[in-house]
Design goal:
395 residues, alpha/beta
Length: 395
């Protein structure tokens, strides 16, 4: 997703500067060409050699350094950039950026680049909340820069409040959102279901499955990166909420059906990646269920077929389902595609190494009425983009 992208990281004089080292490392591992520009004050918190070792590129500090690669460093690097992230961004540097002051390598590069600029403020709570700082942040947004709201918590100065720089994973997500993929779904509204459902047996116990929600969450995040407005209807999972995605938390299959139905009229695309239980206990009072510790008798009833029910009235909407099989994978999946009136179905063979629940990879076959495309072993993020690219072409 970020392979061969030119990414500039602007690091200013804040204690949070050390966190950018792990971000630089991750971006480099993803194949990005990472360049770090530091203010002189930032070098008091982390040594430039750290970034040079992690990125393989010279860390720039001095505007008039004669040992550089480009003829006019700040201009050439600014033109080469696909995105620039200033993090941590102090109140001082934010003020300079808001008023066009270019008195060091970082601020001159900000002024010269035409790439998207992301700013992550990090400072004392009172400094952050000062009207002048808020005015400067508002001005950056007016100029088209993306400003990430700081996190709240315990700060290095001992205060508790807003002003904490988000974690490197959050900054990584913002970079991916800015340049991770072409906006092939711009203007589209997408619903994604993810995770397991829980069907109550009694007030204490429930029936569920092994779904972790990884595939659905990867699809939701990828759809947002592709420019869509995304609603993720999620069963209980332990995955961070994707950036720029609206999440609706549910528990049972009935909850999921209600949540998806509430969004369905405005949707363009519905992707059902959740592992929804087909059955639920017919009586959850507990009185007719437990006869003894060794004798359980549970009367079951079918849950609503969420995608199948909605596909019957899909109109212009594109419906993509998932099929997890252990035998006759393609035959069973194609039958489900036609029987349920889907436009696309993504087939998993649970016996395939690297596929299914609880792993970061997947092996799938994308099936439409006209063709079948088998994908090799890929990460679930890569599978998500492959699916969305085919949906975009079909619209």
């Amino acid at each position: 997703m970020l392979k061969d992208k030119c990414i500039i990281l602007g690091v200013t004089g804040s204690i949070a500067a050390y966190k950018i080292a792990s971000l630089a490392s991750r971006l480099k591992k993803d194949g990005a060409d990472v360049h770090v520009i530091m203010t002189e004050n930032a070098t008091n918190f982390i040594n430039p050699i750290t970034f040079e070792t992690l990125t393989g590129n010279k860390c720039l500090v001095d505007t008039f350094d004669r040992d550089f690669e480009f003829s006019v460093e700040h201009v050439s690097l600014g033109q080469a950039a696909d995105v620039m992230l200033v993090a941590p961004a102090t109140a001082n540097v934010i003020a300079k950026m808001a008023h066009g002051i270019a008195d060091d390598m970082l601020t001159t590069t900000v002024l010269s680049t035409t790439a998207p600029i992301i700013v992550s403020p990090a400072m004392n709570t009172r400094m952050y909340e000062k009207p002048v700082t808020q005015d400067n942040i508002a001005r950056l947004r007016e100029y088209g820069m993306t400003v990430i709201d700081p996190a709240e918590g315990y700060l290095a100065c001992g205060d508790i409040g807003a002003g904490k720089m988000p974690e490197p994973e959050d900054l990584y997500d913002e970079i991916c959102f800015a340049i991770g993929h072409e906006r092939i779904l711009a203007g589209k509204k997408v619903i994604v279901t993810a995770g397991p459902t829980r069907e109550a047996v009694d007030p204490v116990r429930f029936l569920t499955n092994h779904s972790t929600g990884r595939m659905g969450y990867a699809l939701a995040q990828a759809a947002a990166i592709c420019g869509a407005e995304v609603t993720l209807v999620s069963g209980p999972v332990e995955i961070p909420v994707p950036a720029h995605v609206k999440v609706v938390d549910i528990s049972s299959a009935a909850d999921m059906y209600d949540a998806v139905s509430a969004e369905f009229d405005d949707a363009d695309i519905l992707i059902g990646a959740a592992a929804v239980a087909d059955y639920r206990p017919a009586d959850v009072s507990g009185e007719k269920i437990k006869k003894s510790d060794s004798d359980m008798s549970i009367k079951m009833e079918r849950t609503t077929d969420i995608l199948g029910t909605l596909a019957a009235k899909k109109d212009h909407r594109f419906i993509c389902g998932f099929s997890m099989e252990t035998e006759n994978v393609l035959v069973n999946s194609r039958d489900k595609l036609l029987r349920k009136n889907f436009d696309m179905i993504v087939a998993n063979d649970l016996r395939e190494p690297g596929a299914g629940f609880g792993v970061p990879t997947n092996v799938v076959t994308i099936i439409t009425e006209k063709d079948e495309t088998h994908l090799p072993l890929l990460t679930k993020d890569e599978v998500a983009f492959e699916i969305l690219e085919r949906i975009a072409k079909a619209l």
